[in-house]
Amino acid sequence: MKLQPDKSDVQTLTAHGPGWVAINNEKVEHSVVLGSRGERFEWNCARFEDLEAEHFAQLASLGAELVIFGSGERIRFPKPQWLQALMARRTGVETMDTPAACRTYNILAGEGRHVLAALIVESPSGG
């Protein structure tokens, strides 16, 4: 699906599909963290089942006001103990499937909020 954000000076998620997202029209085929203040790095978790508390502690260290967690092709909620580092910093967390997280990130980043999108990009079924 192609996403059409308004003109923005922040990194945006411009499209997504099975097994990929596009950041400023660059196709990315791995899980990724993207931030409205220029943060961008590969997130070392190919599947929801790979997640641990350390993945969310890494996000907490970035100091965003909100983390949008894209849990893959379907919504799956992180274990509460995984979120301790974010809660300790009073960082909000919203969980949704990755396509919804892409759309939500664009809206909030476009509003000037300090937001992170932590997106699980799963390989398509059978791949």
Question: What is the element layout, followed by pairings?
Answer:
Blueprint: E1 13-17, E2 20-23, E3 26-28, E4 32-35, E5 40-42, H1 53-60, E6 66-70, H2 84-88, E7 92-96, H3 98-110, E8 115-119
Parallel strand pairs: 6-7, 6-8
Antiparallel strand pairs: 1-2, 2-3, 4-5, 4-8
Provide keyphrases for this structure.
127 residues, alpha/beta, Hypothetical Protein Mth938, Chain: A, five-stranded mixed sheet, three-stranded antiparallel sheet, 8 strands, 20% helix, globular
- Report the uncertain regions: none
Number of self-contained structural domains? 1
The side-by-side strand order for the widest beta sheet comes to 5-4-8-6-7
Tell me the major beta sheet: 5 strands, mixed
Any idea what the radius of gyration is? 13 Å
Q: What's the shape?
A: globular
Order of helices and strands: EEEEEHEHEHE
**The CATH homologous superfamily:** MTH938-like
Helical element count? 3
**Strand segment tally:** 8
CATH topology: Hypothetical Protein Mth938, Chain: A
Main CATH class: Alpha Beta
> How much beta, percentage-wise?
25-35%
Structural class, please?
Answer: alpha/beta
Mean pLDDT comes to 93
